[in-house]
Amino acid sequence: MHVPDGFLDAPTSVATGVLAAGTVALALRRAREELDERTAPLAGLTAAFVFAVQMMNFPVGAGTSGHLIGGTLTAVLVGPWTAVLCMTVVLLVQAVLFADGGLTALGTNVTLMALVAVGVGYGLFRLLVAVLPRTRTGLLVAAGVGAFASVPVAALAFVALFAAGGVADIPVGTVAATMGGIHVLIGLGEAAITVVVLGAVLAARPDLVHGAAHLRSADTLLRRPEVLTPRGPAQR
Amino acid sequence: MGARHGGALSARYVAGTSPVHRLAPQVKLVAVLAYALVVVATPVHAGWAPWAYAGYLLVVLAAAAVAGVRPGRLAGSLVVEIPFVVFALLLPFVTRGPRVEVLGLSLSESGLQTGGALLAKATLSVLAATVLAATTEPRELLRGLERLRLPSALVQILGFMIRYVDVVSGELHRMRVARESRAFDGRRRGALRVVGAAAGALFIRSYERGERVHLAMLSRGYTGRLPRGPVAAVPSRDWLAGLSLPLAAGAVLATGMLLG
């Protein structure tokens, strides 16, 4: 759902463009706190991952398959600010190299998919992580709910933008209900994919998952028992 | 995907030596952006708007002809529009205001106009962006964005993405081949778990590759910024040639405004 050129009027496009530029500027500064000077290579490779994984087809039950949008998954994996940068770069590449999403609508697309989707998904994730039991399951549920909600909320944000600065006089309620309904289904697929991918990363390299820092702090400092037992003189 | 020659990002690039290919990337970027701005600025409800769209179409088709982009490729690029075509087709049904009868359907007059205008504008912009993508290599585009003062941190991230996206999608492709050679069936229950695990492994490999790339760069003296190549000034003749696309479109728009 990349907004093409001409869907929103000039003031709305400019406003979302300014909002997107501010978000990216802030994210550039804050991502350095998440990844220090490794930002460029790590965010670049993560963006390449997001781009590749968006082309993957996941079977999501009942004979259907969907693809990942990945805002919430990326935010949980590498942190929200780096995720904003990765999504922005992917959107820029899609607009310039694939004509997917208009150049004048780039600000709108970044606002919807980097700011709103990542913000809602990751915000909900943090909120639920604080409430739910501090276990692997709790983390996966939180990420799943965040990923699910991010899709319809981004769609509704688009409807709101279209109602405010769209070029047609549409009954907002009906369109919001239709768009929301369709995107609830897409959100279910997004949630399923996010949970499975995140579960796989957690099983193999839990230390890489930015959003799981609270899970590993408890046991990383445990000492192995045999180091504590004094060795006999014979072994020296 | 990926393993194909040329790579995932150059899928739209057509090698050539046309005048459009030889233009500096920043000129082409500015030209396509300005063209899109002119197209978007066209008033939707003006009576002359359809004539203006036809004018813009001629302008962009002329640019495509100069660039040697074949019509089939241009038409193929319109596939990205499909989700929004659906949205535009719904507009005549849901827009409020006076209705007209078309083939027994009661449609909104302004909805018809707006739906048509949205389609026209989106299509024209996609055509222009396709000419850009067909005549400019990803690496060149990166250079153009750098010249246009995109923040250097963003340029670096974009550069790493462009450089490694083929490696990452190649890895994805090999995982798929391995999966399918083990009789993987996407329709079976539990298939999501298998594909999800592959995507998870892909993230770990990408991230670890990022760490290795960073260490390799450190050992070569990386200090957080990349050295820039020499900046060659673009002659004003090239700017004029590149900007003839938005200028011609602007002339169409001005004519419409004056006569309409």
Structural class by sheet pairing and helices of chain A: mainly alpha
Q: How would you write the strand order of the largest sheet of chain A?
A: 1-2
CATH architecture of chain A: Orthogonal Bundle
Can you list the strand order of the major beta sheet of chain B? 1-2
Describe this structure in words.
Chain A has 236 residues and is an all-alpha fold. A two-stranded antiparallel sheet of chain A has the order 1-2. Chain A is built from nine helices and two strands; from the N terminus they run H-H-E-E-H-H-H-H-H-H-H. In chain A, helix 3 packs across helix 4 (80-98), helix 3 crosses helix 6 (136-165) and helix 5 (106-131) packs antiparallel against helix 6. Chain A has a single domain, classed as Arp2/3 complex 21 kDa subunit ARPC3 (Orthogonal Bundle). Chain A has helices spanning 10-35, 39-54, 71-78, 80-98, 106-131, 136-165, 172-204, 213-216, 225-228; strands at residues 58-59, 65-66. The mean pLDDT of chain A is 84. Chain B has a domain at 16-143 and 234-259. Chain B contains ten helices and two strands, in the order αααααββααααα. A two-stranded antiparallel ribbon of chain B has the order 1-2. The longest helix of chain B has 30 residues, at 152-181. Mean pLDDT of chain B is 84; it is low at 1-5. At the A-B interface, helix 1, helix 2, strand 1, helix 4 and helix 7 of A face helix 2, helix 5, helix 6, helix 7 and helix 8 of B.
Properties at a glance:
heterodimer, A: 236 residues, mainly alpha, Arp2/3 complex 21 kDa subunit ARPC3, two-stranded antiparallel ribbon, 2% strand, B: 260 residues, two-stranded antiparallel sheet, 69% helix, disordered N terminus
